[in-house]
Design a protein that fits this description.
Strand content: 15-25%
Radius of gyration: 67 Å
Bound molecules: adenosine-5'-diphosphate
Number of strands: 33
Strand order of the largest sheet: 18-17-16-21-20-19
Shape: rod-shaped
Structural class: alpha+beta
Number of helices: 30
Length: about 1000
């Protein structure tokens, strides 16, 4: 251009020259030269350059103009530029403007820049910018026009305006759509930005499938990718180190589409299994445009880059920055110059650098191996340092810049501040966790098995969610003067304080207590700078931040829930406080409920434990018999569940009913006592199975809150009854067994004894008969007589033996028949003694009775026999020279007979048994003597058949005293106690004895 003007100036100088010819030639030469130069120069430029004469006809047309408008110089020379280039509608206007320009600029010689639209040879209309200036060439005043095609710039400006508008929205609202879907890609949640991005309200999106929100190609891509990642995620239970990211074409509500960049990650259950997807979608049309622009035009790239809030940077292949867009100031605080100076390694945290470099390395390697598609983009999130300190999160989208052959020439990066998105993601994730925690806590607290454990677990959940060191509940005393720490959760490594925090006086933190009482939350974000209340309470010392949420019970401040961060100051954002409030309310209810339940349980337990200990069923009923309470023993005894028992009529359990007893007891209640003594009755119980059982029921009444209640203790005595019966049976069986055993034993004895006893007379018969047969002739009469007497004696004995056996068998058959007659007792004694005398040495048997005796009514034969048995025994079991005394006495009621010997006596333990059949004392002294053990048995039977008794007593000087009493006829026999006076008589007898 300078050359053009210079030539113009040169021309102007010639105009002033009077010597025209010479000057003309010179000028022509100069023109030729300058025109050539001009052409060379202008052809190197992109702009179109035209020179027009004063009428506006083309005199010069460079290559740039040819390229731009499509006409060659030959085609246009001499043609009017306005006619040539102006769109028809503008032709008149442009003519006017040309004339106006010519006139106004004629004297000024200044440049002017105007915008027009031009029509190319092919009819294409495009915006141009023209710079016009006046120049005098060859004495003519020409117009030099520089034309610039500004199509691209216009488009860029347009785009810029759009993008500005869009980024205003970015600044005002966070435009990324954050959504959550299930594994089948049905949307479950979307944030409000969905409206801006998609045209859908967030609510409308819920339950829509991603398939409806993407073009089919994109959805197929996304679906396949999801399947792939899900397989990996299910296996590994951890998220990949580089976030999964894909570009998809999304469909707006109005059907238009846009390109979005979608970053996804799985939502996992505590065990790691994925159950949903968290995604962030970003409209990247703007960025796509920018990138497109970058590839095609440096100018546009700069324009765009400079106007985007994203930082665009370029490095060469050695990672040296060659360009960084000005927005870097906003993003990091560094100016472009400063940023260009910085070493890449210093811009991001070491972890981020590592991630970025490994990504780049991978990219380079793939590049070398020819595996990169030409427009592959890598995405990495890095944490970058800000000049003022602190960091921001940048999402870097990185790609190779390539030359026309596709060879990489550098690296292009677009860095976007995603701190906000990270925050939003974190918050959404956290809110989801919070929601889940709250719902877990609420289900846990609804009807817990173990409420204490449920509360403690809930505090633990809350502690983990809020990421604090301690979570605790304080309960206030009734009068609000003391508080005690009732529940506590501490994080690992934090020491428990609960035991130290009991019965603290509230005065120590009056100010805070008042706030709590007003229902205010106390949230201290940084206790290192805020003064704690006076009177430091244990547990606050360690806290760097704390929050107290007041808990209101039904009537009053119940206590508060507290959280301590023991590591660092801790902000308490609104949504956290909301969660804390909800949980604290749930806990308040649960604790109150637990208290009521505990009190109830305790009182119930007291009753129950007593009840269960006895195993008795305890029923509490109304006086009308409605069951109010039943312990488990009742359930067990009657077979009903507690639920069935409640409100049941007691008559169903005890068909006999309790009305009568209740009626009987009722008047006693309340007069002196608020409860009555139990009244025990046996009645029938009816089980659910309709079986009955014997029950022992103890009924008492008591007053409860002024109302009479019936307390019935029911004991199933089936067992006891059974046992008693069994005992009886067992005893009977044992007795029977004993009897039969006795019989068996006796039978054996009978045989042995009878054999033994029979052998004796048999031996005598045999012995004497042999002697008599053999020695009859040699024997004198005396010897023969003695022998025959011995035989007679033996036969007597045999007879008495047989008589005894017969007698005994009669007794056994209970067929003793008594023939009563009146006799004198002494006469009876004398008769018996006279019968015995032949066997005894003279004077051995002494009858020592004195005075008069009433005659008695007995079977004299039998009583004489009894006395005879006793005399026989007395002689048999005492030395031959010893005396046997016999006497009788009479009381008003009975007649007593006594036989006293001074023999071997009877051991105490045998004294009862000797009266049994076939019983013989088994000892050395007794055994050798003959006898069948029937004598005393017969004696007792005969005495008892008279209604009397017989007994043996030890004699005072050894030996035995056999006594028997016969009552007066028609009287029952006397008791043994009345026998005692006999000892008086005994001493008399002793006195009488020599
Ligand atoms: P037996 O005299 O025929 O053996 P008893 O029935 O008359 O049968 O007596 C039973 C047992 O009582 C005798 O075997 C003897 O051991 C004991 N007994 C009876 N009377 C006396 C007595 N007076 N002194 C010592 N033992 C006696």
């Amino acid at each position: 251009m300078g050359a053009v003007r210079e030539s113009g100036e040169t021309g102007a100088a010639h105009d002033l020259d009077p010597d025209k010819d010479a000057a003309e030639q010179e000028a022509a030469a100069a023109l030729a030269g300058s025109e050539e130069m001009l052409r060379g120069l202008t052809d190197a430029l992109k702009e179109g350059i035209l020179v027009l004469d004063r009428n506006g006809n083309v005199v010069f047309w460079n290559q740039g103009a040819e390229k731009m408008l499509g006409f060659t110089e030959e085609e246009v020379l001499g043609r009017n530029a306005v006619e040539l280039m102006a769109p028809e509608d503008y032709r008149d206007e442009y003519h006017g403007r040309f004339i106006e320009f010519k006139e106004s600029r004629a004297s000024t010689g200044t440049e002017d820049i105007m915008e027009f639209e031009a029509v190319a040879k092919d009819g294409r209309v495009f915006p141009i910018e023209i710079i016009t200036s006046m120049a005098s060439i060859k004495g003519e005043t020409d117009v030099i026009v520089v034309i610039r095609d500004v199509t691209e710039r216009k488009e860029t400006e347009q785009a810029l305006q759009e993008s500005k508008a869009r980024y205003r929205i970015v600044e005002e609202n966070f435009t990324d759509v954050v959504w959550v879907s299930d594994l089948d890609l049905n949307i479950k949640y979307a944030n409000p930005s969905a409206y801006h991005q998609m045209g859908y309200e967030a609510e409308e999106l819920v339950s829509k499938s991603l398939g409806e929100l993407m073009t089919p190609e994109s959805f197929n891509l996304a679906f396949a990718r999801k399947e792939e990642e899900l397989a990996i995620a299910t296996e590994t239970a951890v998220d990949p180190p580089i976030p999964v990211e894909l570009e998809v074409e999304q469909v707006r509500k109005d059907g238009t589409t846009f390109w979005a960049d979608v970053r996804v990650g799985f939502l996992r259950r505590p065990d790691g299994t994925p159950y949903g997807i968290l995604g962030v979608s970003r409209d990247i049309s703007g960025r796509r445009h920018a990138e497109e622009a970058l590839r095609t035009s440096e100018e546009r790239y700069q324009l765009l880059a400079e106007n985007l809030s994203d930082v665009i940077w370029v490095t060469d292949l050695s990672l040296k920055w060659t360009y960084i867009s000005p927005s870097v100031v906003n993003q990091t605080g560094y100016s472009v110059e400063e940023a260009l100076e910085r070493n890449m390694a210093d811009t991001v945290t070491p972890e981020s650098l590592k991630a970025a470099l490994s990504l780049l390395e991978g990219g380079m390697r793939d590049e070398l191996e020819g595996r990169n598609p030409p427009d592959r983009i890598w995405v990495v999130e890095v944490e970058a340092y800000r000049k003022s300190g602190g960091t921001i999160w940048l999402e870097e989208r990185v790609k190779f810049l390539r030359d026309g052959d596709g060879e990489p020439t550098g690296i292009l990066g677009v860095a976007r501040d995603v701190t906000m998105r990270k925050c939003a993601e974190e918050r959404i994730k956290r809110n989801l966790i919070a929601e889940k925690t709250v719902s877990r806590i609420s289900t846990r607290l609804i009807s817990p098995q173990d409420l204490e454990a449920a509360i403690n677990d809930s505090l633990a959940d809350l502690g983990r969610l809020m990421d604090v060191g301690r979570v605790y509940l304080f309960e206030a005393s009734e009068d609000l003067r003391y508080i005690s720490n009732t529940h506590e959760w501490v994080a690992e490594g934090v020491t428990s304080q609960i035991s130290k925090l009991q019965n603290l006086a509230v005065g120590a933190f009056d100010e805070w207590a008042e706030k709590l009482l007003r229902g205010e939350i106390i949230a201290q974000e940084d206790l290192t700078v805020v003064a704690k209340p006076a009177g430091d309470i244990v547990g606050w010392k360690e806290a760097k931040a704390l929050i107290y949420i007041p808990m209101f019970g039904r009537m009053r401040l119940f206590g508060f829930m507290g959280l301590n961060d023991v590591r660092a100051p801790h902000a308490w954002p609104e949504e956290d406080i909301r969660v804390l409030r909800i949980v604290s309310e749930m806990l308040t209810k649960a604790v109150e409920q637990s208290r009521t339940e505990k009190a109830l349980r305790e009182s119930e337990n007291r009753v129950r434990s007593i009840a269960e200990a006895t195993g008795d069923g305890i029923l509490m009923t109304t006086p009308a018999g409605r069951v109010l309470f039943a312990n488990t023993a009742v359930e067990r005894i009657f077979g009903y569940s507690y639920g069935e028992l409640e409100c049941m009529s007691v008559d169903k359990l005890l068909p006999g009913g309790l009305e009568d007893i209740v009626g009987e007891l009722m008047p006693r209640l309340g007069r002196e006592e608020d409860s009555t003594e139990g009244k025990v009755i046996e009645m029938e119980g009816l089980r659910r199975s309709e079986n009955t059982f014997p029950a022992e029921v103890s009924v008492s009444l008591f007053l409860l809150q002024g109302q009479p209640n019936v307390l019935a203790t029911v004991r199933d005595i089936t067992g006891r009854k059974l046992l008693a019966e069994m005992e009886k049976e067992a005893a009977a069986a044992a007795a029977a067994a004993e009897v039969s055993q006795q019989h068996a034993d006796e039978l054996k004895d009978i045989i042995i004894i009878t054999a033994h006893e029979l052998r004796h007379p048999a031996t005598v018969f045999k012995g004497y008969s042999e002697i008599l047969l053999k020695y009859w002739n040699e024997m004198d009469n005396k010897r023969i007589r003695e022998s025959l007497e011995s035989i007679g004696e033996a036969s007597n004995r045999l007879t008495s033996l047989v008589e005894n056996l017969l007698e005994a068998s009669l007794i056994e058959k209970k067929s003793i028949e008594l023939e009563y007659s009146k006799v004198d007792p002494v006469a009876l004694i004398e008769m018996a003694v006279s019968e015995a005398r032949p066997k005894a040495p003279d004077g051995r048997i002494r009858i020592c009775t004195s005075g008069k005796y009433e005659s008695i009514e007995v079977d004299s034969e039998k009583i004489r026999g009894v006395i005879g048995i006793l005399i026989d025994n007395a002689m048999k079991y005492s030395p031959e020279e010893s005396l046997v005394h016999i006497w009788c006495e009479q009381t008003g009621e009975e007649t007593l007979f006594h036989v006293l010997d001074r023999g071997i006596g009877i051991p105490e333990e045998e004294r009862e048994k000797i009266f049994r059949r076939f019983y013989q004392v088994e000892d050395v002294n007794h055994h050798s003597l003959p006898g069948m053990g029937l004598g005393l048995y017969i004696a007792r039977s005969l005495v008892e058949s008279h209604g009397g008794w017989i007994e043996v007593f030890p004699g005072e000087e050894g030996g035995s005293l056999f006594s028997f009493g016969i009552p007066k006829k028609g009287r029952t026999h006397s008791s043994k106690a009345q026998v005692n006076p006999r000892y008086g008589i005994l001493s008399e007898i002793n006195f009488l004895t020599p």
